[in-house]
Write a structure and sequence with these properties.
By secondary structure, the chain is an alpha+beta fold. The chain has 4 helices and 8 strands, in the order E-H-E-H-E-E-H-E-H-E-E-E. Helix content is about 20%, strand content about 30%. The protein has a 4-stranded antiparallel beta sheet, covered by helices on one side. The protein has a 4-stranded antiparallel beta sheet with strand order 5-4-3-6, with helices on both faces. A hairpin with a 6-residue loop joins strand 3 and strand 4.
Length: about 200
C-alpha cells in the first residue's frame, strides 16, 4: 500500500483534476465499468480528466487550490455531451465514451491547469483528448464488449465546475474541493457569468 501524506517521508500526495460526470450518468457508467470487469472501477468517480495523476509536495496544496480557483474564476459554464464509444488501442488499453460537445472547452481548461507558470505544470504522455474511460487494462474480449455495449450511450449536461481529487492509500480517488466557474461556491441554477471563456481555442 502507498503511504498517506502524513506517513510519507517526502510528504507527497497524488492529485488529479477532472470534470465529474453528473448523476444519474456517473453512477451508471461506473457500474457498467465494474460490470465489464475493470477492478479500478469503484475507486474512480466517472470523469473527464483535466490533469492526470500527478505527484506533488503536500505543502504545495494551498498554492494549487489558489491556482485552480483562479482558473475557474476565468471560465464560464459550457455544454457537455457524450455519445458513443472510442478506443486508444493499440497505443493504450482504454475504451472510452466520446466527448462530442465541450471538448474544446476541456482542452482550454487543461492548458490553464497545467500552465507553466503555475504549480501543476507537467508534460503529458499523449496529446490531450477529452474522454470518459469505461474500461482500462482488461482483456481484449472485455474491452470489445465495453466498446459495443455503450456504442449508443448518450448524456448531456451543463458543466459548471471542475474538482481537485486526491488518491488515497487504498487507491480510491476522493474529491478535495470543487471549483465553480466564475468564482462561485455552488453551481448556479442558470449559469451565465459574462466572463471571457475559451480564448484562442483550437
Amino acid at each position: 500500500m502507498n503511504p498517506t501524506a502524513e506517513e510519507n517521508d517526502v510528504g507527497t500526495v497524488t492529485l488529479g483534476v477532472s470534470i465529474a460526470v453528473p448523476e444519474p450518468y456517473g453512477s451508471l457508467l461506473q457500474g457498467r465499468r465494474a460490470g465489464f470487469g475493470d477492478p479500478a472501477a469503484h475507486g474512480i468517480p466517472t470523469h473527464v480528466t483535466l490533469l492526470p495523476p500527478t505527484e506533488v509536495d503536500a505543502a504545495a496544496l494551498p498554492a494549487i487550490e489558489l491556482h485552480l480557483a483562479e482558473v475557474a474564476a476565468a471560465g464560464r459554464s459550457f455544454p457537455m455531451r457524450l455519445y458513443g464509444t472510442g478506443t486508444f488501442r493499440p497505443l493504450s488499453p482504454v475504451v472510452f465514451v466520446q466527448v462530442v460537445e465541450g471538448g474544446s472547452a476541456c482542452a482550454w481548461l487543461q492548458q490553464q491547469v497545467r500552465d507553466p507558470a503555475g504549480p501543476l505544470t507537467r508534460d503529458l504522455h499523449f496529446p490531450y483528448h477529452p474522454h470518459v474511460t469505461v474500461a482500462h487494462a482488461i482483456s481484449d474480449e472485455l474491452m470489445d464488449r465495453a466498446y459495443a455495449a455503450l456504442a449508443d450511450f448518450e448524456a448531456a449536461w451543463t458543466c459548471a465546475a471542475f474538482a481537485l481529487y486526491e488518491q488515497g492509500a487504498d487507491g480510491v480517488w476522493r474529491k478535495l474541493r470543487e471549483f465553480v466557474f466564475g468564482g462561485g461556491v455552488i453551481p448556479p441554477q442558470n449559469a451565465s457569468h459574462g466572463v471571457p471563456a475559451e480564448p484562442s481555442l483550437p
